[in-house]
Each structure stands twice: as structure tokens, then as C-alpha cells.
Amino acid sequence: MVVYSPGRANLIGEHTDYNDGFVLPFAIKRYVKIEIEPSKKFKIFSHQLKKGIEFDTPTKTNSWADYVIGMVQKLREHGYEVKPFTMNIDSDLPMGAGLSSSAALEVGVGYAISQMMEFEIDREELAKIAHECEVDFVGVRCGIMDQYAVALSKENHALFIDTMTREYKYVPLRLDDTKLYLINSGVKHELGSSEYNKRRHECELALQALRKSSFREVTLEDIEKIQDPVLKKRALHVVTENERVLKTLSALEDDNLVLVGKYLYESHYSLKDNYEVSCEEIDFLIEKLREYSNVLGARIVGAGFGGSIIALVKGNFESIFEKISEAYRIKFGILPTLLNVDTSNGVFRAL
């Protein structure tokens, strides 16, 4: 049996998913491919890493295999009798580019197991189990966005998620003569994961300072009362980013892609100045993109400190990208890569 599990891009709503906020991701036509069949013991092989592992009982290894082992463990905790299997994993999702290859693997593994063993697991439950795997087993305190996007997405739509209530709805992406692109900067600064957890903690401290339990209760007037300048900036990003997601939602419903682009740029500058998760290389690319009027908007995506930019572009972009790419290479000695982003359905089984 073969299963394809998509990566995801996030149009807008960055660092809001673990703050009870709004997000607007969509799945992309880049996949983790999983082949599974029954076996006498658990055997996993990654074609990308050219590494394999065998085990009888699911125990943590602190390696890539934990995304698979953790799903076996979590499914069992939820009462599903997971029997041994052989699994081959391949992918055309670039790792470390902010496209959520980890959630694609978790959701894909869970879906492949449930299909092969005929478990009755709906997609929402599958996403929640995959999220538990990442948080409890792998140990990354992420929000629910990635797993929901991988499990629940629909082609030609974005997925609007209220991460506090976990309610979601499909939002048509009528792009017409505009296209979405991802630009991989080719850099990933090491402080990414440590700073991610630090930002989470700073958000918690900001709420404590305001004596609030959720950012959904926080207004711009409240933020002015925060004494600590760093905590004030973090809170300002979360509250204004939530507003930008809702404004983007309205702009998409009105087919106003120029306005969507404006909100993307605003999101980037908030991530740069208030949340402080951008970097020199990403900012250079953003400023170069701003020189071209047919680039409607762009922003850093993912945890930050490198990774990728999402750009909304009207008309031809390849020639513009060549010029920007050359300027970037001259300055940083790195060639960025361009990924044309097409929307995808959530995880599915090959027929």
C-alpha cells in the first residue's frame, strides 16, 4: 500500500498557532511517500537518509525514526492495536525549508497504518494523534496547524483554523493570474529551535504580566500596559498577526489579492521587528522583492532564522527571480531555490 502525505505552506498567521490564534495554511503538491506492508517485526527505511531501523517495541531513539515510532506508540495509547510492518519512506519535500516535513511524516505514517490495518480513524483525530506524537514523544512544543493542514487540506483552498477552538473552514484560493511561490533562502541558523522555545516562553510571560489566560482576551490597549519592551513586542506581533489573518480572510473572499499581498508584507515586518525571528539573508530577499510591482507581497514562513519566504506574484516571476538570485549569490555566496507552489488535498492513498 502506498500513501502520499503533503507538505504545507502557511499563507499567513505565523507564531499564532501556539498562542490560541488564527492561521491560514494549505497543503502543497510535494509529498512524503510511504510504502507499508505487514511484517514480523517493525522495519523502517528512509530513502532520503539512506538509513534504516528495526524494533520490536516502540522506544525513543532521538533520531528521525521517532516520528514513526512515536506514531506507533500514540496509536496504541489511543487503543489501536498496531501490528508490525515494513515501511519505506521517500520524499520530494526539502527538509529544513519550513514546509513541515515532520508533520507530513507523522500524519502519513498514521494514515498508512490505519489504512492497512483498517482502523476507523477520522482525519481530525489522526491530526490530533500526530500532534501528540510531536509534542509528547518527539518533544517539540508546536501548535496544531501543521498536522491539521496535512490531514485536512483541500485542493484550491486554504484551511482557516481557529487554534483555540480547533474549528476550521475551507477558504477558496482563486488566484487567477497570480501565483504563490516559495523561495528557499538556503540558510538555517542554529538558534532556530532554542529561540522558538524562548519566544513561546516570552508569550507566556506577556500573558502573565497582563493577568490574561489567552491572547484572545488581549487588546492593543492592554499591550501598552506591558512594562518589559521585549514582552510588549512579542504580544504586539501575536495580536496584530491575528488581525491580519482575519483581514486576509476577508480580502480572499472579495478576491482582492493586492490587499492580501499588503498583509503579507505587514506580517513580515512584524515578524522581523516585533517577534525578531528574521535574519539578514531573508530581509535582503524581501527588500529585493519589493522593488518589483508585480510581487504583491512576501514574508518569511516557519519558525524563522532562515528557511523560506512565501511570495504572491502576478504574471511572470522567473526572470525577476534570476536577477534577485544573482544579487543574493554575490552578497551571501548562496543560491536560493524557487518552488512553484500548487495546492493539494490532504494525505491520501494511491489508487
From TrEMBL:
Enzyme Commission number(s) of this protein: 2.7.1.6
Annotated keywords: ATP-binding, Carbohydrate metabolism, Cytoplasm, Galactose metabolism, Kinase, Magnesium, Metal-binding, Nucleotide-binding, Transferase
GO cellular component assignments: cytosol
GO biological process, one term: galactose metabolic process
Residue stretches making up the Galactokinase N-terminal domain: 2-34
Residue ranges of domain GHMP kinase C-terminal in the record: 249-329
InterPro entries named among the record's database cross-references: Galactokinase (IPR000705), Galactokinase_CS (IPR019741), GalKase_N (IPR019539), GHMP_kinase_C_dom (IPR013750), GHMP_kinase_C_sf (IPR036554), GHMP_kinase_N_dom (IPR006204), GHMP_knse_ATP-bd_CS (IPR006203), Mevalonate/galactokinase (IPR006206)
Domain GHMP kinase N-terminal residues, every copy: 67-153
One Pfam family hit: GHMP_kinases_C
Superkingdom per UniProt: Bacteria
SUPFAM superfamilies named in the record: GHMP Kinase, C-terminal domain (SSF55060), Ribosomal protein S5 domain 2-like (SSF54211)
GO MF annotation terms: ATP binding; galactokinase activity; metal ion binding
Family: Belongs to the GHMP kinase family. GalK subfamily.
This protein's name: Galactokinase
Organism listed in the record: Fervidobacterium pennivorans
Taxonomy of the source species: Bacteria, Thermotogati, Thermotogota, Thermotogae, Thermotogales
